[in-house]
Structures are given as C-alpha cells and as structure tokens.
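EI: anyone free to look at a 325-residue chain?
SC: sure, send it
EI:
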Amino acid sequence: MIIARTPLRISFAGGGSDLPSFYRKDRAAVLSTSINKYVYLAIHDYFYPNQTLLKYSKTELVSSFEEIQHPIFRECMSMLDISGLDISSMADVPAGTGLGSSSSFTVCLLNVLNAYKHKFVSPEYLASTACDIEINRLGEPIGKQDQYAAAYGGLNFIEFNADETVNVSTIVMDPEAKRKLERNLVMVYTGHTRSASQILKQQNQEMSKDDKRQIMRQMVDMAYELKDVLQRNEIDQFGRILHEGWLLKQKLSNGISNPDIANLYEQGLKAGALGGKLLGAGGSGFLLFYCPEEIQESFWNKMPTNSKFDFKFDNTGSKIIYTEN
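SC: here you go
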C-alpha cells in the first residue's frame, strides 16, 4: 500500500497569465499558496493482476489502458506502463471549486505511480509532466500554475517563460507577518461548482485582443507588486491588491462573475473585508477575502452562516505519506 497526498491551492494575483496564449508573448507570473486541503490517492496490487480497479466518483474495472474512461488515469498509467492495480481517490473539497483540484489529482497520481515503481521524482518533474499530460496530451485549455503550486507547495511567486520553462521562487517573510496574513484570510463558499474549461477557452481567445492583453499585463504587474509587498511584510496592502485585481479580472471575460457572486462579494466588503477575489477561472467556487482577524466575528455574523471554509497554508507540496511493502 502506498498513499500520496497533494495540496490544493489559492491564487492571489496574476492568474490567467499562465495560459500559453499570454506567456509566449508577454511577461507572466502568479503569486499563490498551497493550502491544507488535499487530494489523496491510495494504491496497491489488485487481486487479479491482469485487471485494474479505479475508484473515484465512479468505479472502473478494466483490462487495458484503452478501456479507462477517466482521461487522467488513462494518460498517466499508459505513459508509465503500469497496470494490475487497485487505486482509490479521495479529496477534501469537490472538483470545480476553483482550488486547482484537477491538477492536484494529476500531480498526486504521478507521484504515487512513480513511488510504486520505487522511483523518486522531483517537484519539477511532477509539475512539468502534469502540464504535459493535461495541456498537450489531453488538450485542456488550462495554464500551468496549478500543477506547480501542487507539486512544490508553499507560498510562491511563479514565473512562466516563453521557452516553456518555469521559475518557482519562495516568498520569504517574517514568520509572524506570514501567520498574520494567514489569519486575516477567509474563504466563503458560493455554493456552486463548475468546469473551468469553457471559461478558460474563452479567455484564451480573448488574449488575441490588445485591450484584454493590456488588462492581463496590469494583473501581472500586480503580482510583482504583491511579491514586493509581502517580502517587505507590509500585509495591510494585501486587501487593496486583491480588490484591484478582482476588478481587472472581471473585464477579461463575461463568464468570470455573475450577479450572485457580485452580490456575495459586496456583502463581504460591507461586512468589513478590505478586498477579495473569486478563486479559479470564475463562475463559482470560493470567494477569498482579506479581513482583519479582530473583526472576523462581526464579518461572519453578517455573511451566510453555511459559507465559512476554514483553511491554513501548506508548506510541503505533493508527498508520499505512507508506504508498506
């Protein structure tokens, strides 16, 4: 039995610049952190060595790679030429909530399959291979930030280069300032999930327009500004930058926000938050707010009572948490 654990992520600034339609022509970067909500995969030999049992939201029992319906399972297992296994998937949060769960799943699966082959793999291998599978092999209209956030873990500034290389830099902060930042961030669940593919497909198409590219350039500039702010431990500017970035992001595509999200966001600001943003591509999922800890009791009294979602930062990235020979 081998069990792997891979974190989900929240993105603070620069999201969308990790799409190839943008970073191949312009400076691109995001600032994000992994959180203590995870995807888990458990793997062991199946009783029948000529079959593979896959358990996720569905159950599949197959005799060949071609029979696998789940595209990420199919691509990872065929690429590594591994079969005859019993694999179970679990997660702390449903898919489609803007926390990068699909890419965390891909990274986690690559990690546990390589561990099964007694092979150590680096975070760079996990992230770049997950990108290759999702973007190149499966043709998903997504970017690269989720795979790198999941593989490396921690609070990072991630730059995407035109030559397809990626630079991951850890944000170095005073420990107490980082703890204060963590305590001042709250998440509100909108109550809905969605597939990001259609929104990202439209956003990719919009990058051919000069006005949309200029908006994205401003969002990347804000990622660099946020990096400098955090490294100076000036976290009180965090809310302002989140708010300005959210206003810009909504101009990229019609599907990013909707009246329900706009209303919930306004509720958050009126309740005392200094800024916030919707996580992920848009449309649903979680709203992130920067709300000083000392007024959070009042904040939650004014927000929907069933929307609170507690989390902390994660610093470990994808890891093997259990092995038994």
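EI: The first helix runs from residue 20 to 23.
SC: 👍
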